[in-house]
């Protein structure tokens, strides 16, 4: 007999604790369907804002040691155009969480309402983009502003609200507490780390936007620490994100306190099969260690 892989995150029922992280293949409905077939438990879309945005010029992504640096600049089709795409995505049998952003609390509210009306099962507030001014970390580094955004969205939609935090702060726990006190139903920890790379021949920063966000294995231990610290003090589910490449990483995040894990960069290194591999590995681990369910494993490291 296997162990129970399904989890309930803020009322969302997931067949297993894996999610596609925001921004990864998250726009095309047809591509997302392939991820569902690969076994993912839930999907988070690319971040959607109030209006279409082209994002930054190329280069927008560069591989570095143990990860990727990106500076996409929030390219997205805008809320109105995304409504159609969401219909296609919604044909899948897993929960769809729409990542949203805005430049003001009111814009967050407007986008959230549109996405929920169009069928989003939940929204994830992206208050943590590391390199687009006024929209990301300026909100995500300020407990008062985060609180305003969460309150505004919570009062306007009846679906669960996740808040995705930036690690680019001194005290991530203070920020998590502000989001939860304002009503956030779950915390996603964490977005990418502000970082850069310079071409030593030309002397130029490689990304067109110069400073971008670092993801991948390089950030995993820091993300684990964030999940551990946050999950010890908040009473809502924490979703882990940051450098998860295999089932061992996923188990480590769950032991740290994550109720589910988001996978992004690993898809660039492997392919969609990473979801099957991670789910099978978690299942075998639970059986081997005598845990009847994923839920029993969540935060199991806290007792030490
Ligand atoms: O679009 C981006 O450049 C981007 C976003 Br919105 C984000 O949240 N995190 C990131 O690393 N890049």
SSE diagram, text form:
Layout: E1 7-9, E2 12-14, E3 18-20, H1 29-37, E4 42-44, E5 61-64, E6 67-70, H2 79-89, E7 96-100, H3 105-117, E8 122-126, H4 137-140, H5 143-156, E9 161-165, H6 172-181, E10 186-189, E11 193-195, E12 212-215, H7 220-231, E13 238-241, H8 247-256, E14 258-263, H9 266-269, H10 274-289, H11 294-297
Parallel strand pairs: 3-4, 3-14, 4-7, 7-8, 8-9, 9-10, 10-13, 13-14
Antiparallel strand pairs: 1-2, 5-6, 6-12, 11-12
Could you list some keywords that capture this structure?
304 residues, binds ligand RRO, TIM Barrel, 8-stranded parallel barrel, 11 helices, alpha/beta, globular, 14 strands, 4-stranded antiparallel beta sheet
Structural class: alpha/beta
- First-residue to last-residue Cα separation: 29 Å
Which small-molecule ligands are present, each listed once?
A: ligand RRO
Shape designation: globular
Strand order of the largest sheet: 3-4-7-8-9-10-13-14
CATH top level is Alpha Beta
Average pLDDT figure = 94
Number of domains: 1
Identify low-pLDDT runs. none
Major sheet details: 8 strands, parallel, barrel
In DSSP terms (H or I, runs of 4 or more residues), the helix count works out at 11
By CATH, the superfamily comes out as Aldolase class I
Helix content: 25-40%
């Amino acid at each position: 007999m296997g162990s129970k892989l399904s989890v309930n995150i803020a009322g969302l029922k997931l067949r297993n604790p894996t999610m596609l992280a925001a921004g990864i293949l998250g726009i095309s409905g047809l591509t997302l369907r392939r991820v569902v077939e690969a076994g993912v438990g839930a999907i988070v879309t690319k971040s959607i804002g109030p209006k279409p945005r082209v994002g930054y010029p190329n280069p927008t992504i560069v591989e570095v040691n143990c990860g990727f640096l990106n500076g996409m600049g929030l390219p997205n089709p805008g809320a109105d155009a995304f409504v159609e795409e969401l219909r296609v995505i919604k044909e899948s049998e897993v929960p769809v969480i729409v990542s949203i952003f805005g430049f003001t609390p009111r814009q967050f509210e407007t986008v959230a309402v549109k996405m929920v009306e169009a069928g989003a099962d939940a929204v994830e507030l992206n208050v943590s983009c590391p390199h687009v001014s006024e929209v990301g970390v300026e909100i995500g580094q300020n407990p008062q502003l985060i609180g305003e955004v969460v309150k505004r969205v919570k009062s306007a939609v009846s679906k669960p609200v996740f808040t995705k935090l930036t690690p680019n702060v001194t005290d991530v726990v203070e920020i998590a507490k502000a989001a939860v006190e304002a009503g956030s139903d779950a915390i996603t920890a964490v977005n990418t780390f502000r970082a850069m790379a310079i071409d030593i021949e030309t002397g130029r920063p490689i990304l067109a936007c110069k400073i971008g966000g670092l993801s991948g294995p390089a950030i995993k231990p820091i993300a684990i620490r964030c999940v551990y610290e946050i999950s010890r003090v908040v009473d809502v589910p924490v979703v882990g994100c940051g450098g998860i490449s295999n089932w061992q990483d996923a188990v480590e995040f769950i032991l740290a306190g994550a109720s589910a894990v988001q996978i992004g960069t690993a898809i660039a290194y492997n392919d969609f099969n990473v979801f099957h591999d991670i789910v099978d590995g978690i299942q075998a681990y639970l059986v081997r260690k005598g845990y009847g369910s994923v839920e029993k494993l969540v935060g199991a490291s806290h007792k030490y």
